[in-house]
Amino acid sequence: MIAALDRTPLNRSFFDRPVQEVAPELLGRLLVRSTEAGPVELRLTEVEAYAGPTDPGSHAYRGRTARNDVMFGPPGHVYVYFTYGMWHCVNLVCGQEGDPGAVLLRAGEVVRGAELARPRRPAARHDRELAKGPARLATALDIDRALDGADACGPPSSPLRILTGRPVPADQVRTGPRTGVAGEGGIRPWRYWQAEDRTVSPYRAHAPRRRPRT
Description:
The protein is α+β, with helices and mostly antiparallel strands. Helices cover 14% and strands 29% of the residues.
């Protein structure tokens, strides 16, 4: 018998730890996105950890900017960034205030509100593809920069919250290099996923972007 999802909110102390500790323990947690149309709920199946000034793959590697400011703030808040001029990606801030760290939410299973997510992801052939990748996840849950800085440990009225869910047992957690990250940052085994889960995105090594020929 599969255990029910625990709807107890995760408290801020859960995130007030090193990002490498928090990341694997986020697998199986329940991400709840509340909108006027209704909620969409996602069970997390894949994440990536990003540290601060010591991590070449992190947005905080070169210091604080207007873009990454939320990473330096209190843990448990949402960091949303825009990439490639077309996609949003969502992260949860970890570590002590002033010590930037964040977990990128890479993939998950939509367990409630699929009828709201499907129109946002018309290219998905199956529901398991609705949030199979970080940009797809943000699109399915209608997440953009307007949610940057939102408190995922806040009250029920918060637009994005993280609940206890059903943590993935340690023997079902897999780890490997981060997807699409170049150089030293790419080889760090800070990508975590649930073994044999069909919503996990495929691994892709970094490929330099080529400028179009003129």
